[in-house]
UniProtKB/TrEMBL annotation:
<keyword id="KW-1133">Transmembrane helix</keyword>
<feature type="transmembrane region" description="Helical">
    <location>
        <begin position="101"/>
        <end position="123"/>
    </location>
</feature>
<feature type="transmembrane region" description="Helical">
    <location>
        <begin position="70"/>
        <end position="89"/>
    </location>
</feature>
<keyword id="KW-0813">Transport</keyword>
<feature type="transmembrane region" description="Helical">
    <location>
        <begin position="438"/>
        <end position="459"/>
    </location>
</feature>
<feature type="transmembrane region" description="Helical">
    <location>
        <begin position="259"/>
        <end position="278"/>
    </location>
</feature>
<feature type="compositionally biased region" description="Polar residues">
    <location>
        <begin position="562"/>
        <end position="575"/>
    </location>
</feature>
<feature type="transmembrane region" description="Helical">
    <location>
        <begin position="298"/>
        <end position="320"/>
    </location>
</feature>
<dbReference type="InterPro" id="IPR051068">
    <property type="entry name" value="MFS_Domain-Containing_Protein"/>
</dbReference>
<feature type="transmembrane region" description="Helical">
    <location>
        <begin position="164"/>
        <end position="190"/>
    </location>
</feature>
<feature type="transmembrane region" description="Helical">
    <location>
        <begin position="129"/>
        <end position="152"/>
    </location>
</feature>
<feature type="region of interest" description="Disordered">
    <location>
        <begin position="543"/>
        <end position="575"/>
    </location>
</feature>
<dbReference type="InterPro" id="IPR020846">
    <property type="entry name" value="MFS_dom"/>
</dbReference>
<keyword id="KW-0472">Membrane</keyword>
<dbReference type="InterPro" id="IPR011701">
    <property type="entry name" value="MFS"/>
</dbReference>
<feature type="transmembrane region" description="Helical">
    <location>
        <begin position="499"/>
        <end position="518"/>
    </location>
</feature>
<dbReference type="GO" id="GO:0005765">
    <property type="term" value="C:lysosomal membrane"/>
</dbReference>
Length: 575
């Protein structure tokens, strides 16, 4: 137990206490609170991702007539709720001067909404609307991300912030990864599960995810109680010392942020997330169109590609802080984040010598031959499609005849593989190679974590030590808006105009944002007592301040000796 406690509690080194802003005990309490924020950000991401692979079969079981159109509303309810309430929760935290009450309310709502999702069987009617309502409430509860980011800015020194924001971004990414893994783990309960309330409520592979959220939400709620979570806002103390002010409010009022830089970073965050949702929206249909993969093959291969991409992104989160100790943050953001994301889009512009394989009956015939050659069914369990062999889902002990009809059929009754002729551009454009796809995905997996982390880091420094709840809410809301608009824009452009327009427009969008960031690079700096990301900025400013004070004192002493009266030395001529 003592070893576990030592792992969770961060102890200061000698250099950490040299500035005299806190004691060793206060340092430990501050970093304990920061690590609780890490867990909270992990949980908010987990709450969104844990149901994604199971929500469709759960909805279909509760209401077979709901349809996949309603599924889209359920998945979209979470980011919409977060987008609406993030600025409001951030403003509330600013008004209170504390994040404890907003977070306690958000986590209570998170647990209640997750409980509703787990208990949908208890509602006799309108179960699909109760599911929609529960997902919207979870989105509302995840608006606490705004105050978490605000507190992270307030609870870290300037030199610590890049590393802290990198870790909180890593925690969010892990939440998105672990969610589907937990959903897969609870499939051992099966569809019927264990009865909790006889003939009314069951613990099965769908409801278990809701109960996991409930338990983790209650734990998170307890971590924010006063005897565990102690708010430590050291950024204001650091600024007060550098500015020579006597109060926090006086300090941040004397340090006006660069609003153009702030809005530039909010816009850059919107564009970055807007381009990243390509992976969520088009990756699977793109591979099916370009490489003539079946639904099962696309889901299987994309699962592995995304897993490797997630590992690569996690490694990049850990490398951001060391990179920013060698190079300025603005340069790392522009070249490591936006330039690589732009390359990731440009690489997807078709370069193959041959057009994509069209989804015509002869391709379907080949798929049929593959089925007939292999009597033993290859089973792939997809939550969104029912596929036999690589086209239909069956039980492992099934011994009946092999059907010849797929889910989407041509006149012959068999799935067509390849680029559908209904997309006119399939007949005229060149195809994409698998190497292109993998290289572009790798650029995205590297560039996105760098971009999203450093935008948030620089944004917090541009705003200074002032309360940042409302501003962080606006940034979080812009990301949610891009998650809502991005899929609609990308899927429409892709379907109607094809690869050149889809990836050409997104590459131009990233290039234009990168050029604007390059023009603004000199202004994307902390105010006004810090000018770089290397961690030595405070020493430099303190040294300059001391030199200026000594020069001023020498001038005043010289004036005293000439005039014989120190009170008369501060004249316009002397200054």
């Amino acid at each position: 137990m003592e070893r576990l406690k030592n792992c969770l509690l961060k102890k200061p080194s000698k250099n950490d206490l040299d500035d005299g802003l806190e004691t060793a005990a206060e340092y430990t309490e501050r970093w304990t609170s920061v690590r609780i924020i890490y867990y909270t950000m992990f949980l908010m991401s987990l709450g969104f991702s844990i149901i994604l692979t199971g929500v469709w079969p759960y909805l279909d079981k509760l209401d077979p007539h709901a349809g996949k159109e309603f599924l889209g509303w359920i998945v979209g309810a979470n980011p919409v709720g977060q987008m609406i309430f993030s600025p409001l929760v951030g403003w509330w935290g600013n008004r209170l001067g504390s994040i404890r009450l907003p977070l306690l309310c958000s986590l209570a709502l998170f647990s209640i909404a997750s409980g509703i999702y787990a208990c949908l069987e208890l509602f006799p009617t309108d179960q699909k609307y109760w599911m929609l309502y529960s997902r919207f409430l979870i989105g509302v509860s995840s608006s606490s991300v705004a105050v978490c980011r605000s507190y992270l800015s307030a609870a870290t020194k300037v030199k610590e912030r890049t590393g802290a924001v990198s870790m909180v971004s890593l925690a969010q990414t892990l939440g998105f990864i672990v969610g589907p893994v937990l959903q897969g783990a609870v499939t051992m309960f099966g569809e019927d599960g264990l009865p909790l309330v006889k003939n009314k409520l069951h613990l099965n592979m769908y409801t278990a995810t809701g109960w996991i959220n409930v338990l983790m939400g209650i734990l998170n709620f307890c971590l924010f109680l006063p005897f565990v979570f102690k708010e430590k806002r050291i950024a204001a103390l650091e600024a007060m010392k550098q500015q020579g002010m006597q109060s926090e409010k006086e300090t941040w009022k004397s340090m006006k942020p660069d609003y153009l830089s702030a809005w530039t970073l909010i816009s850059a965050f919107f564009i970055l997330v807007f381009n990243f949702v390509f992976l969520e929206t088009l990756a699977t249909p793109l591979t099916m169109d370009m490489f003539a993969w079946t639904k099962a093959e696309a889901l299987y291969y994309m699962a592995w590609i995304m897993a490797v991409g997630a590992i690569l992104a996690s490694a990049m989160f850990l490398m951001i802080d060391p990179l920013c100790k060698r190079f300025p943050e603005q340069q790392v953001l522009i070249w490591g984040g936006f330039f690589l994301m732009m390359l990731g889009r440009a690489v997807y512009i078709p370069m193959s010598d041959t057009p994509p394989k069209l989804a015509l009956p002869e391709n379907a015939t080949l798929a049929s031959l593959r089925m007939e050659d292999d009597v033993t069914p290859y089973v792939y369990g997809s939550n969104f499609t029912n596929v036999w062999s690589n086209l239909t889902r069956v039980d492992f002990d099934y011994s009946g005849p092999i059907p010849t009809a797929g889910t989407e059929t041509l006149d012959g009754g068999i799935d067509a593989l390849g680029c559908p002729p209904s997309q006119e551009w399939c007949k005229t454009t060149r195809g994409m190679t698998i190497s292109q796809f993998l290289v572009g995905y790798a650029f995205t997996a590297i560039g996105y974590p760098i971009g999203v982390t450093l935008i948030t880091t620089i944004f917090s420094k541009v705003l200074g030590p002032r309360p940042q709840g409302t501003w962080m809410g606006i940034m979080t809301g812009s990301g949610c808006l891009s998650r809502a608009l991005g899929p609609v824009f990308l899927s429409t452009i892709y379907t109607k105009y094809g690869l050149y327009w889809t990836f050409g427009s997104t590459a131009v969008m990233m290039a234009a944002t990168m050029m604007w960031l390059w023009q603004m690079r000199e202004r994307l700096v902390p105010i006004p007592y810090d000018a770089s990301c290397r961690g030595e900025e405070l020493v430099s400013v303190i040294t300059k301040g001391d030199q200026a004070s000594e020069e001023k004192k020498t001038t005043e002493d010289g004036g005293d000796q000439l005039n014989g009266n120190s009170k008369d030395s501060s004249t316009p001529g002397d200054s």
